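Anyone up for a design puzzle?
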């Protein structure tokens, strides 16, 4: 099978590309003109330079049997509002239309649990849950919700399966993502405190395999949560302590404190200094809720693997150390 992948240079996309190649598929990847290609280095991948809004994108899709639309613009900064909707919503509309015009038989669109929203306190959300778009925190979440609506509309005339990854961990997190940054800051000793929040974590390899399973077994127009274990941030850090021997933070901070710092950074310091915000307000607002999800549907209908989270953490730590993002003391031999 000849497959077309967007976002192949990113965290999830790079793992999807590797799973496709391992399964014997040919891969053609769309890359931006100045994209960092380290995650694809040494792989037998045909690279096509372009962007999601190109009017002749269908030309690049000709001859492909399947599309994996993994690419997305991720930002929680208010200043990126317009680019979020342009890339995530209009970009999705354009590439799905291009795939239909090019005769691509099946497409998998990578959404996010962000589009589903947050369940009520103490609850676990599944694919049937939907927070009203006006109540979704931040323009990133809203843009992913609207992009998912575009995918569902497209599914009326072509085969489009929607997958909603939770918070992946593992190798090839080059940027890193916000989830990977938690691990990296812990390894660097930059996390003296923690926030009282929780997420659903999953091995990125399971997410990548879930994409291939969605292509093979998913129902058009349906959404599938690609996740694994619901865990508080404190519990995750404790597992990292057990894995590495590095001490996990013991005290939490009230949410008003990082929210105040974020407000000062995004509203005052960043505009004044002309730099990107390092502590976005929406990121802190999101952490005020426990974002727990159930992958039961994907496990049942797709056969989504459920790799133990300790393996995901071990693989993430090993990759960051191997690639020189951080160093562990010589005494730490557990990895």
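Challenge accepted. My sequence:
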């Amino acid at each position: 099978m000849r497959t077309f992948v967007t976002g192949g240079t990113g965290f999830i996309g790079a793992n999807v590309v590797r799973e496709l190649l391992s399964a014997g598929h040919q891969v053609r990847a769309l890359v931006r003109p100045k994209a960092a290609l380290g995650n694809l280095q040494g792989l037998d991948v045909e690279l096509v330079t372009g962007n999601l809004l190109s009017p002749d994108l269908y030309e690049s899709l000709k001859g492909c049997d399947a599309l994996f639309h993994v690419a997305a613009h991720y930002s929680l900064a208010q200043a990126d509002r317009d680019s979020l909707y342009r890339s995530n919503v209009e970009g999705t509309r354009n590439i799905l239309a291009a795939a239909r015009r090019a005769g691509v038989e099946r497409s998998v669109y990578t959404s996010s649990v962000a589009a589903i929203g947050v369940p009520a306190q103490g609850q676990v959300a599944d694919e049937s849950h939907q927070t009203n778009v006006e109540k979704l925190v931040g323009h990133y979440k809203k843009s992913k919700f609207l992009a998912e609506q575009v995918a569902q509309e497209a599914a009326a005339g072509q085969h489009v399966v929607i997958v909603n990854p939770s918070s992946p961990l593992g190798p090839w997190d080059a940027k890193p993502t916000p989830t990977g940054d938690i691990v990296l800051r812990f390894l660097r000793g930059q996390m003296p405190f923690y926030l009282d929040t929780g997420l659903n974590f999953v091995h990125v390899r399971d997410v990548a395999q879930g994409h291939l399973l969605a292509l093979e077994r998913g129902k058009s127009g349906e959404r599938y949560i690609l996740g694994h274990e619901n865990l508080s941030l404190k519990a995750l850090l404790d597992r990292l302590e057990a894995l590495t021997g590095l001490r996990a933070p013991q005290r939490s901070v009230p949410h008003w404190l990082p929210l105040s710092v974020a407000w000062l950074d995004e509203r005052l310091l960043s505009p004044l200094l002309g730099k990107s915000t390092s502590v976005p307000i929406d990121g802190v607002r999101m952490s005020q809720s426990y974002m727990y999800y159930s992958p039961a549907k994907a496990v049942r209908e797709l056969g989504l693997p459920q790799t133990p989270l300790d393996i995901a953490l071990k693989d993430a730590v090993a990759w960051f150390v191997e690639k020189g993002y951080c160093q562990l003391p010589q005494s730490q031999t557990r990895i």
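A detail worth pointing out: The radius of gyration is 19 Å.
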